[in-house]
Amino acid sequence: MKKGVMRPGHVQIRVLDMKEAVEHYTDLVGLIETDRDDQGRVYLKAWTEVDKFSVVLRETDQPGCDFMGFKVLDEDTLVSLTQGLKDFGLEVEEIPAEELKGCGRRVRFTVASGHAFELYADKEYTGKWGVTEVNPEAWPRGLSGMKATRFDHALFYGPNLPEVLDVFTNVLGFHLAEQVMDPDGNRIAQFLTASMKEHDIAFIHSDEPGQLHHTSYYLETWDDVLRAADLISMTDTSIDIGPTRHGLTHGKTIYFFDPSGNRCEVFCGGDYTYPDHKPVTWTADELGKAIFYHDRVLNERFLTVLT
Amino acid sequence: MPAYQVFNRTTGDSFTCNGDQSVLKAMELVGKKCVPVGCRGGGCGFCKIRVVEGDFECGKMSKAHVPPEALAQGEVLACRIYPQADLTIECVPQPVDAIVEQATRAKQTTTRPMR
Ligand code: FES
Ligand SMILES: [Fe+2]
Known about the structure:
Chain B: It comes from Marinobacter persicus. Chain A is an alpha/beta fold and about 300 residues long. Chain A has helices at about 20-30, 75-90, 160-170, 220-235, 285-290, 300-305; strands at about 5-15, 30-35, 40-45, 55-60, 65-70, 90-95, 105-110, 115-120, 150-160, 175-180, 185-195, 200-205, 210-220, 240-245, 250-255, 265-270, 280-285.
């Protein structure tokens, strides 16, 4: 939060078939549909989120991620961060308010890994779903599937990680919570945060720019992760790996795919971090364990299957 | 549902696939590994094969992995095709990914003293 970036605010995911995708993210993951627009995009949110949407689905013929947006403190912060991005040498695109329904103006930029990000200060405040603002109950009834509580983070694959780190830390005020270093001293993975969470966003090196590895949704307990695995079997959903634990972040996790092949994660737990914490370092020779703490072997599908 | 034979001429494997089953799913169900399994959703391109012979129906596939030129050459994603006849398929070479290479190299060059 050092420079006023608060949190991941939204992600726009490309899907091959909207009907199947909506079923996946609502019935299975447990997000709630909040709106649709005249471009055919579908807006979703998780129940603990206070703003109108966090996940936007767009139907097209190539799965992947269009952009991820971060919410900043206020309009002044948006203005100063935009200037920071320009001073850094990045091109910024102004997207008018209401291009996404209920969202204020957005500032979009593409970093050297080929991924587009956005900053915005305003989004319609709809409050947590299904609970009252005053004297709220513990959770709402009527949630579906895995009952995901929030869109938590995303992991992207692409080149030029040092420059991406520079933008996120020096311009946007994130800090480096975890990293994987190869024997030549190259950082092949970087986990960045604007909060106390071990990652709000992460990057892994690959030569191919602009790739999505996964979007991730938060669950409360390990039991919920196990129950998510049960639901994946009950619905014959494509599973990747889990339930298991990560070495990196130590989160408890399961990975699966949406019907267009975009990887999703639901997880619980994980370490915390403060800006004075030194980055946690994993070495490339222990990458297997860093990724899947129990298996301790490199999992080729996890490392190379992307959209 | 009629069942068809799928023959992978690169690896010599063959297996049965129902008309309402994707080729990849049928392969996985009998425990064969002759086509790489990725997302199973037509998005990642991992399961790309070439169909040399036989009719099939095709679901939605990522254009990034199967552009029209490739489709014209019979290249498809095994997770998205449903046989309508016996099929002969072959493997399409996969690009080797940098991070797997890098990590494998790290494993080989970092030797630890044995105790
Ligand atoms: S397994 Fe991903 S496209 Fe078939
Ligand atoms: Fe994750």
